[in-house]
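User: Before I run my own analysis I want an independent prediction to cross-check against. Here's the chain; please return only the structure tokens and, at the end, one sentence I can use as a sanity check.
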Amino acid sequence: MKRLWTPAWIARHVAMVVLVTAFLALGWWQVSRAAAGNAISWGYAVEWPIFAGFVVFVWWREVRHALRGAEAGPTAAVGEAPDAGDPTVVERAEAVEAAGVRPRPGIGRPVRVTRTVGGHGEEDAELAAYNRYLSWLNANPGAKPGDYPG
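Assistant: Structure tokens:
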């Protein structure tokens, strides 16, 4: 539970309470407007409590995710493959298999991958021709695309 009382989590708790209170107050305001004769306000009177419920739903999922993440224990860094010869990895895999529980894949940070066209650093001929065409258009601002000599 200590994980839920960090400054970031306290800000999330406060934001949730403020948003739910504001959305419910706006819903009540729309009910009073609808009772005064504004027919469109009935729709908004229903929408605002739904928004408040969604905030509570997202907050609850984040709390559960944070608590479940605390129980999972340490994991390998993103991009780092677990060592198959490491006894702890093997023991953990055997324990999970014996329990009949399938491990859930972790969600890590995105990994930047550098890509080369053709796989060997070769430049794509079509891309090179298009880039030459664009540089020609840039060098000749008044020219029409049909004037391109290439």
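Sanity check: The mean pLDDT is 80.
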